């Protein structure tokens, strides 16, 4: 559905919507890493390690993290964090472009936080050496994601109430939902304004959208 030639062209021409951080805004960046395979492009995900007090503990995500003072921009932050988390150096990768800035809403709470997604293309089959923050690295076929073949739901507690969340089920049972799911949909809409999202369950009875 989305070949790398098309992805390169669309992202090179795209001008993302950005947010200006305030004095107390936390800033972060994530790396959407793609590679080409004989069966089509693949996308890289990580499973975050279980950590008490972390709102994203154990969740599937893109590698990335907070922007530090040493990071001169969001691209550098995404590259640095990816190397720290899974030992994947993006210095010689192809930076294909940026997506719209996202906000963080863990468990329904809106944070004063900006997440800047950046897309990279790598070659080959790198070996990963995850640090203590990452439990696993998973590749997923882009065509199955974009075609909504992996769309699934999972029931989890939100403010003490069982809530059904929409997302994508990867190999090994990994469930991509919330912020990462939103970024994925933004990615596909950026490539094709007519892209059709999966048929999702409606918002929860409380009126909240079932994404974090």
Can you give me a brief rundown of this structure?
By secondary structure, the protein is α+β, with helices and mostly antiparallel strands.
Give your account of this protein's structure.
- Residues 205-212 have low confidence and may be disordered.
- The strands form 2 sheets. Strands 1, 2, 3, 4, 5, 6, 7 and 8 form an 8-stranded mixed beta sheet that branches. Strands 9-10-11 form a 3-stranded antiparallel beta sheet.
- The chain has one domain (4-191): Nucleoside Triphosphate Pyrophosphohydrolase (Alpha-Beta Complex).
- Helices cover 20% and strands 33% of the residues.
- With 212 residues, it is of the alpha+beta class.
- It is globular.
- The protein has 4 helices and 11 strands; from the N terminus they run H-E-E-E-E-H-E-E-E-E-H-E-E-E-H.
Molecular shape:
globular
Number of strands: 11
The helix/strand series, from N terminus to C terminus, equals HEEEEHEEEEHEEEH
What is the terminal-to-terminal distance?
27 Å
- Would you state the CATH class? Alpha Beta
Mean pLDDT: 91
**Poorly predicted residue ranges:** 205-212
Task: Name the CATH homologous superfamily.
Answer: Nucleoside Triphosphate Pyrophosphohydrolase
What is the total domain count? 1
Distinct helical segment count: 4
Structural class: alpha+beta
Largest sheet: 8 strands, mixed
Helix % is: 10-25%
| CATH level 3 topology | Nucleoside Triphosphate Pyrophosphohydrolase
CA gyration radius, whole angstroms? 16 Å
β-strand percent reads: 25-35%
CATH architecture: Alpha-Beta Complex
């Amino acid at each position: 559905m989305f070949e790398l030639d098309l992805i390169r062209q669309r992202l090179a021409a795209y001008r993302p919507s950005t947010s200006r951080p305030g004095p107390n805004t936390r800033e972060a960046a994530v790396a959407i890493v793609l590679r080409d395979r004989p069966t089509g492009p693949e996308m890289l995900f990580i499973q975050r390690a279980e950590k008490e007090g972390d709102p994203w503990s154990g969740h599937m995500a893109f590698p990335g993290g907070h922007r530090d003072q040493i990071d001169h921009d969001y691209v550098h932050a995404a590259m640095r964090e990816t190397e720290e988390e899974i030992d994947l150096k993006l210095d010689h990768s192809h930076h294909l472009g940026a997506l719209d800035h996202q906000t963080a809403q863990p468990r329904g709470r809106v944070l004063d936080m900006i997440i800047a997604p950046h897309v990279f293309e790598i070659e080959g089959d790198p070996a990963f050496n995850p640090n203590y923050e990452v439990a696993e690295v998973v590749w997923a076929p882009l065509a199955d994601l974009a075609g909504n073949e992996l769309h699934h739901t999972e029931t989890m507690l939100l403010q003490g109430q069982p809530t059904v969340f929409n997302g994508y089920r990867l190999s090994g049972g990994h469930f991509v939902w919330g912020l990462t799911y939103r970024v994925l949909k933004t990615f596909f809409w950026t490539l094709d304004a007519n892209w059709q999202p999966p048929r999702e369950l409606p918002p929860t009875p409380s009126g909240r959208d079932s994404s974090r």
